[in-house]
Amino acid sequence: KNEVEQSPQNLTAQEGEFITINCSYSVGISALHWLQQHPGGGIVSLFMLSSGKKKHGRLIATINIQEKHSSLHITASHPRDSAVYICAVKIMNSGGYQKVTFGIGTKLQVIP
Amino acid sequence: DSGVTQTPKHLITATGQRVTLRCSPRSGDLSVYWYQQSLDQGLQFLIQYYNGEERAKGNILERFSAQQFPDLHSELNLSSLELGDSALYFCASSVQPGGGYTFGSGTRLTVV
């Protein structure tokens, strides 16, 4: 079982729909990142969370540390939101170093 | 332009060869991270440096090595290349090890 599980793996939505992408992890973490990878390959860091909720424009990210779960929401989705969304968790190992593990990604396509 | 510069953007080389990928972090960022993204494995964390010192090591092969120089740029050296090393290699930087990332546009390595 992967340490980080994302769902769904593929998602097609109509423009304007509210979208939720989920990320579950199985270990204690120090932080969780949501990344966006555009079709051209470039990666943008959307959010870094260690608790609670963050909002940026139409994007909202939440995390529940007790349930080991995070969600990324997109309101009023637009075709330009089409991308792969990747969840990444930072785990502090016993040596005090951080290990980063990525989910497989959720491929989102928003249709006009 | 994210402020993180990776060169070269594309690289084609033969099996058994050695290549060096370069990353200049965003101005003021002290931490540099290297990631590999292959088609079948998604994003994988390779290694992290902070102000010239190695801070974390992920799934980095012994044939690969990296360093961060006094001017904070970093190089990832890949040797004895195999077909399976073909991937996108991303560099990211942050102000401090726990901070949010800024990604470079990646180097696409093709081993033939």
- N- to C-terminal distance of chain A: 36 Å
Order of helices and strands of chain A: EEEEEEEEEEE
Contiguous low-pLDDT stretches of chain B (5 residues minimum) are: none
The major beta sheet of chain B can be summarized as: 7 strands, mixed
Number of strands of chain B: 11
Name the quaternary structure: heterodimer
The tally of helices of chain A reads 0
- Shape field of chain A: globular
Q: What overall geometry of chain B do the principal axes of the alpha carbons give?
A: globular
Residue-averaged pLDDT of chain A, rounded? 91
Question: Describe it for me?
Answer:
The complex is a heterodimer of chains A (112) and B (112). In chain A, 0% of the residues lie in helices and 61% in strands. The radius of gyration of chain A is 14 Å and the shape is globular. Chain B is mostly beta strands. Chain B has no helices and eleven strands. In chain B, the strands form two sheets. In chain B, strands 2, 4, 5, 6, 9, 10 and 11 form a seven-stranded mixed beta sheet that branches. In chain B, strand 9 and strand 10 form a beta hairpin. The radius of gyration of chain B is 13 Å and the shape is globular. The N and C termini of chain B lie far apart (30 Å).
Q: What tags apply to this protein structure?
A:
heterodimer, A: mainly beta, six-stranded mixed sheet, five-stranded antiparallel sheet, 11 strands, 0% helix, B: 112 residues, mainly beta, seven-stranded mixed sheet, 54% strand
Task: Provide a short characterization of the protein structure.
Chain A has 112 residues and is mainly beta. Helix content of chain A is 0%, strand content 61%.
Give the SSE map.
The complex is a heterodimer of chains A (112) and B (112).
Chain A: E1 4-7, E2 10-14, E3 19-25, E4 31-37, E5 43-49, E6 52-56, E7 59-64, E8 69-74, E9 83-92, E10 98-102, E11 106-111
Parallel strand pairs in A: 2-11
Antiparallel strand pairs in A: 1-3, 3-8, 4-5, 4-9, 6-7, 7-8, 9-10, 9-11
Chain B: E1 5-7, E2 10-13, E3 19-24, E4 31-38, E5 42-50, E6 53-57, E7 64-68, E8 74-78, E9 87-94, E10 102-103, E11 107-111
Parallel strand pairs in B: 2-11
Antiparallel strand pairs in B: 1-3, 3-8, 4-5, 4-9, 5-6, 7-8, 9-10, 9-11
